[in-house]
Amino acid sequence: MTSHQHNPVSEESGKPRRRETSMTSLTRRMAMTAALALPLAAQAAADESDLLTGAAAGPTVKRAPAELVRRSQEAVRAFIRGDVAAYLTFVDVADDFTLMQPFGGEVTRGFNRSPEWAKGIADYFKGGEAEVELVQSYASGDDPGDIAVLVTIEHQHGQVGGLPDQEWPLRVTLVFRRAASGWELVHRHADLTVRRVTLEQASMMALGKWPSAGDE
């Protein structure tokens, strides 16, 4: 009887202890889950902020020198008005320069420094103005860096190739290399798709099927 009476007491007293242990374990698991979830939530918020602001995620990115950014912007303003002499005071173009121009076609290599070419540019670009939006910049190597990259949007207008004054916005990537004399422009890639194109339009462009002058 004593043994029989003891068992229910043992079971009764044991049940609350198991529930208490279970609740304690659950609370600990919830705390661990919350501890793990908070950093993930913070990272997700940071990632979303990066997408909205264009900031680089992850480690701090080394930026291109501010003076290089300023000079490249002034060079754009000079070029859109056809002033090659002023352009070359702001940018030193490397002998192995490559150009992927917005009109497409093969990559151009080298840089024409002849007076005839400068005159041709002056005749081709007239009355232009530009504001350059810096989207992002990067630099590598020790200060002041070995390579610098500028990602920009050139908001500009002017008379180009005899056409009336109009907007000519460009998405542009510039690559500079550090030389003994300073920064050299080694690559420029520009395209006209600042405004989004449809898949159908992109398909036609990829096939080289451009609208003729008379098409609507």
Indicate how many domains the architecture comprises: 2
Radius of gyration: 32 Å
| First-residue to last-residue Cα separation | 104 Å
CATH topology type of the largest domain: Nuclear Transport Factor 2, Chain: A
Spell the H/E element sequence.
Answer: HHHEEHEEEEEH
Number of strands: 7
By CATH reckoning, the class of the largest domain would read: Alpha Beta
Q: Specify the CATH architecture of the largest domain.
A: Roll
Largest pleated sheet:
7 strands, mixed
Dominant shape: globular
Discrete helix count: 5
What does this structure look like?
This protein is α+β, with helices and mostly antiparallel strands and 216 residues long. The protein folds into two domains: 1-60, no CATH class; 66-206, Roll (Nuclear Transport Factor 2, Chain: A). The chain is built from five helices and seven strands. It has helices at residues 2-53, 66-80, 84-90, 115-124, 199-206, and strands spanning 92-100, 108-109, 125-140, 147-160, 166-167, 170-179, 182-191. Strands 1, 2, 3, 4, 5, 6 and 7 form a seven-stranded mixed beta sheet that branches. Helix 2 (66-80) runs antiparallel to helix 3. The radius of gyration is 32 Å and the shape is globular.
